[in-house]
Design goal:
By secondary structure, the chain is α+β, with helices and mostly antiparallel strands. The protein has 2 domains: 48 residues; 147 residues, Sandwich (Jelly Rolls). It is built from 2 helices and 13 strands, in the order αβββββββββββββα. α1 runs antiparallel to α2.
């Protein structure tokens, strides 16, 4: 094989490796226990913050902190659903703590200053009201304004309808403290599936990615044949 063919083949291999590494980097996650599954509870719910490692809870407990999918109180026929997996957390004042603010927060590390990131999460109303709100922002490490999100409407009890949400921010430091909060909310909004990843150009779907690699390899083989069949 001639030197120029070797160079072409190596260049294609390096390109394929770069694309593969880039696709993995785009899915990097900075959140610990974003699915709230680290401690598996066996009851309907728990009010112990230690059952939610990686997160800090502030404000009143409300009716529950960590909930498990399945039957809930009051003899109803509806069963709680999780956004993903089997468990999720809630935020709300319950019946006795109206007027107060409740929050879940976590400090994330390894950010790149000036980089834009996306916080993805799942949100659901408990069901006593069709929709509920939650505010997402940073108490340190980013000057991006907080944003309030509204759950998708539901008319059934116990977190039946989960919707995906996204909040983007610019890192002002290598670490930042993410906070989800509610204020003066009687019922408990559900939160699940929290993740943070750099906001980059879309990663090709697996099929498209494989087709691209196949095309590169085909080009390399064609170049090799042309060199081998060229007059000497």
């Amino acid at each position: 094989m001639r030197a120029d063919t070797v160079t072409t083949t190596r260049a294609i291999a390096f390109t394929a490796a770069f694309l593969l590494l880039s696709s993995g980097a785009a899915r990097a996650d900075y959140i610990t226990n974003g699915g709230f599954e680290a401690v598996q509870i066996t009851t309907e719910y728990t009010t112990n913050p230690a059952d939610v490692p990686g997160w800090t809870h502030t404000g009143p407990v409300g009716d529950a902190l960590l909930l498990r999918a399945g039957p809930q109180c009051c003899g109803g026929t509806n069963k709680a659903l999780a956004g993903e997996g089997d468990q999720f957390v809630s935020l709300g004042g319950g019946y006795t703590s109206l007027g107060s603010t409740e929050a879940w927060s976590q400090t994330v590390n390894g950010l790149v200053t000036g980089q834009t990131y996306a916080v993805n999460f799942l949100l659901a109303s408990e069901g006593e009201t069709p929709t509920q709100k939650i505010t997402v922002g940073f108490t340190s490490g980013s000057s991006t304004p907080s944003q309030t999100f509204t759950s998708i409407p539901t008319h059934t009890l116990f977190w039946q309808n989960w919707g995906p949400e996204q909040y983007t921010f610019v890192a002002a430091d290598t670490s930042a403290t993410l906070q989800f909060s509610v204020t003066n909310q009687q019922y408990d909004v559900g939160l699940d599936g929290v993740s943070i990843a750099p906001q980059t150009s879309p990663v090709p779907e697996p099929r498209s990615f494989l087709l691209a690699i196949a095309g590169l390899l085909g080009a390399a083989l064609l170049a090799r044949r042309r060199v081998e069949n060229a007059p000497r």
